Amino acid sequence: MWIDDQVLEKCSDEIAIELWVPESSLLVLGRSNKASREVHLAHCAADGVPVFKRLGGGGTVVLYPGCLIVSVGCWVADFYKNDHYFRQLNQAVIQTLKGPLPELVLEQRGYSDIVAEGRKCAGTSLFRSRNYLLYQASILVDLDLEAIERYLPHPSAEPDYRQGRRHRDFLFGLGEHSPLTPHGWREVFACELRAQIEKALEADLIEPKPEQVPHVRSRIGELHPLE
To answer: Could you tell me the CATH number of the domain that includes residue 54?
Structure first.
């Protein structure tokens, strides 16, 4: 089952967190992305790499065994404060990352990227269903530039801070500063992330709304490989 589906299954919980290290490569498009523009489809087909489209927005990413994928579901008070929720959830991720890396300066740049030393180390996406929020972060631990450059052309839209840089000049892997493996980071997030989310969102968190749970669960299974 896709990691977001595992969170949606638990949408009657106040906060649900799933953490995943992929066993093989796959590509995931944001909901408005077009595969013909954002993916080297011939390379994916030749290598047997599947291409999916997620519920949330954001750009197209390559997920592979050097990444950690974080998926969070929670209930929030406001229907419309998506920028605020992005900032607060990214801050929870940043604070979790800073535990093992206290000297590394991490910040949000662009619309929702997490950046270190002017380079992107995590992309995030958000999906909303009324009061329910589904957040995902793909965190680069071991940077596999060969895979990224083989499957992803330069994106059709980029944040201003990228300034046209190639993938190899724009992306940053946490392995440059930490010996932790993706599975090691998974344990860090398993221990720390929930407390950081509760601290970051504070009064924004609300009790689950039982009348909305069936609609949230109806979105399970919507991510499928593209034909």
So the answer is: 3.30.930.10
Mean pLDDT of 168-178: 96
Decide if 65 is inside a domain: yes
Q: Residues 88-131: pLDDT tens digits? A: 999 999 999 999 999 999 999 998 999 999 999 999 999 999 99
Q: If we measure between CA atoms, which residue out of 123, 60, 49 comes closest to residue 93?
A: 123
Task: Evaluate whether 143 touches 172 at the Cβ level (below 8 Å).
Answer: yes
Residues 6+ apart with CB under 8 A from 182: 21, 65, 66, 67, 68, 141, 142
pTM given for the model: 0.94
Between CA 185 and CA 182 the distance in angstroms is 5
Which residue segment(s) compose the domain that 46 sits in?
A: 3-214
Q: Which helix (H) or strand (E) holds 92?
A: helix 82-98
Task: Specify the number of domains making up the chain.
Answer: 1
CA atoms 12, 18, 22, 25: torsion sign: positive
